[in-house]
From TrEMBL:
GO cellular component: cytosol
InterPro entries tied to this protein: RmlC-like (IPR000888), RmlC-like_jellyroll (IPR014710), RmlC_Cupin_sf (IPR011051)
Isomerase as UniProt keyword: yes
Gene: rfbC
Subunit structure: Homodimer.
Protein name, per record: dTDP-4-dehydrorhamnose 3,5-epimerase
Stretch forming the signal peptide: none
Function text: Catalyzes the epimerization of the C3' and C5'positions of dTDP-6-deoxy-D-xylo-4-hexulose, forming dTDP-6-deoxy-L-lyxo-4-hexulose.
Pfam families, alphabetized: dTDP_sugar_isom
Active site (catalytic residues): 62, 131
A GO molecular function held by the record: dTDP-4-dehydrorhamnose 3,5-epimerase activity
Species the sequence originates in: Diaphorobacter ruginosibacter
Amino acid sequence: MKATRLAIPEVVLIEPKVFGDARGFFFESFNQKSFNEATGTDFDFVQDNHSRSRKGVLRGLHYQIQQPQGKLVRVARGAVFDVAVDLRRGSPTFGQWVGAELSEDNQHQLWVPPGFGHGFVVLSETADFLYKTTDYYAPAHERCILWNDADIGVDWHFDGEPQLSAKDAQGTAFKDAEVFA
Ligand SMILES: Cc1cn([C@H]2C[C@H](O)[C@@H](COP(=O)(O)OP(=O)(O)O[C@H]3O[C@@H](C)C(=O)[C@@H](O)[C@H]3O)O2)c(=O)[nH]c1=O
């Protein structure tokens, strides 16, 4: 497994070692010890999620203002561009974003710590998106920043009008959003 800290160093790109053979492949999609060493964290994951989306679907930018979730995300089918936004006021990278393409071909994973907004757009015909979270879903604390907020300025690596949920279409501007202390 290879771990690379991105321009926001708390966000870590994880490249598992994939063992291919005549039958197909095998890899450890999660190993607590390796993950802790790679990220310098020690979280317990409490929820596993799986969503499927069509090409052009964009989910985000999501976070929970209480019970903030760290997310270890990956793609089992298809390809997405995945984005993390630093929402920790006082952080040297507050309001900045990083992103990576995650796909069934590269098997890359992204560690998005608590305190970050998260979203992705689907680049393939369909994508199965899998992620582990460090805290439980808490809809009362859910918040959404508008995907195309100009102050954040994410380059989604996707041309065209994305398909959003009604909730995401009404996301908050970054300047008005509740953020982490
Ligand atoms: C996220 C979530 C949703 N749900 C339900 C609520 C709703 O009826 C349905 C769809 O929810 P949403 O529209 O919020 O799903 P979605 O837009 O896929 O939300 C997810 O987006 C990505 C980008 C994230 O980072 C996740 O943390 C999560 O916010 O699933 C749960 O039961 N548990 C969960 O953990």
